[in-house]
Design a protein that fits this description.
Helix content: under 10%
Radius of gyration: 22 Å
Largest sheet: 7 strands, antiparallel
Strand content: 15-25%
Structural class: mainly beta
Number of strands: 13
Length: 239
């Protein structure tokens, strides 16, 4: 059953969502636990749940699993996971076993917890340094971050980089993707939004805010425990 942005009382809690096309979920192997077992790529498939394509792997022991399809990986290629795997697109290794400067994706933030970073189409992270138990990564935003060197990462760039060039073409296609039209606050009436009203076209006349008056700003907690692992914030001194 689709909730279309409503809670158990039927009230809208997430705006501008609608009932899109029904999708079947494809379970992706983000943990890459089949260590030392080679797998053959049976094919590259479309996944409606994400921007990247997925690759169906057929392991030597007969098991089949999906992974994110890296750029350059094609049907018939052999892929493996584990510390002894080659440095080749699609192979997953602990960060301590990957050479400095390598471009990687689908990276864990905690050992064994499964990939959390660099999973969308065309994204990648560069391994900048390794020191002791930690590895330094440069994220697409320019942020430099420490991650335990025992965490796994997959070599290469996530495939389907043309995803960002796609034009939806019509309003109906956005509806298929569970999106209703997004209305600007300044286009509303004062009763509906703090930025609403005014004669003619108004720019708001106040600090940007939500319909309930909460000011727009940073959403990251100030005292988040993982902040100590950020070496350089995004947007500061990129280069």
């Amino acid at each position: 059953m689709q909730k279309v942005g409503r809670n158990n009382y039927g009230r809208i809690t997430s705006r501008f969502r609608s009932a899109g096309h029904k999708k079947r979920y494809r379970k992706i192997d983000f943990k890459r636990t089949k260590t030392g077992v080679p797998a053959t790529v049976l094919g590259i498939e479309y996944d409606p749940n994400r921007s990247a394509r997925i690759a169906l792997l057929h392991y030597a022991d007969g098991e089949k699993r999906y992974i994110l399809a890296p750029q350059g990986v094609k049907q018939g290629d052999t892929i493996m996971s584990g510390p002894d795997a080659e440095i080749r697109p699609g192979n997953a290794l602990p960060l301590r076993n990957i050479p400095v400067g390598t471009v990687i994706h689908a990276i864990e933030m905690k050992p064994g917890a499964g990939a959390k970073m660099a999973r969308s189409a065309g994204t990648s992270v560069q391994l900048m340094a390794k020191e002791g138990a930690m590895a330094t990564l440069r994220l697409p935003s320019g942020e430099m971050r420490l991650i335990p060197a025992s965490c796994k990462g997959t070599v290469g760039v996530v495939g389907n980089p043309e995803h960002e060039l796609i034009s939806l073409g019509k309003a109906g296609r956005a509806r298929w993707k569970n999106k209703r039209p997004t209305v600007r606050g300044v286009a509303m009436n004062p009763v509906d939004h703090p930025l609403g009203g005014g004669e003619g076209k108004s720019s708001g006349g106040r600090h940007p805010a939500s319909p309930w008056g909460k000011k727009e700003g940073r959403t990251r907690k100030k005292n988040k425990a993982s902040s100590k692992y950020i070496v350089r914030r995004r947007g500061k001194g990129r280069g």
